[in-house]
User: Fold this.
Amino acid sequence: GAVVSQHPSRVICKSGTSVKIECRSLDFQATTMFWYRQFPKQSLMLMATSNEGSKATYEQGVEKDKFLINHASLTLSTLTVTSAHPEDSSFYICSARETGGIYGSPLHFGNGTRLTVT
Amino acid sequence: SQQGEEDPQALSIQEGENATMNCSYKTSINNLQWYRQNSGRGLVHLILIRSNEREKHSGRLRVTLDTSKKSSSLLITASRAADTASYFCATVPNDMRFGAGTRLTVKP
Assistant:
């Protein structure tokens, strides 16, 4: 089955530093990937839609300069949390849609990244 | 809202019992999907039901869809402790958006 690898699974960083999270589709190509943020016992909040070769589309209220998304290839999207602060601590998840897949085919999810900013 | 909304928010049952959770949505759909999320993990796709289908089975899972009521239900039969997770529905289009989910706890 389609596998999405998300790395790192956990990261602890100091306030003011930047952190990069990778989302990689291992056995399929993904023109579109999605980035989410999830607080404990809450739903996934869609942050942005990442499109290969073009600028990401951010949801309302998400700071694009703080959460930099790069989708430089059909198998890799990255989310960089810049100048991280403790309030950025959260669980970040990516998902990918297979290029050329049947309309409405399921999304494939990474296993998430637990970010803790101290 | 564009996404499906799950109900109840939380459900606690004993192992062996059946668990039923519901999803309501507001717009026309192409299909509806159910996902499971174990604590601290990503979502895993469980089952897809198309708009022209009324019921679908996969192992211990049974999904129904009523497009006239814009609702779906997910039934897990003979539940196990390993079924403890959050369950989300997603509607196509807009399947990248999720509601609050149903947190299912199956007690051994």
Observations:
- The mean pLDDT of chain A is 94.
- The two ends of chain A are 37 Å apart (CA to CA).
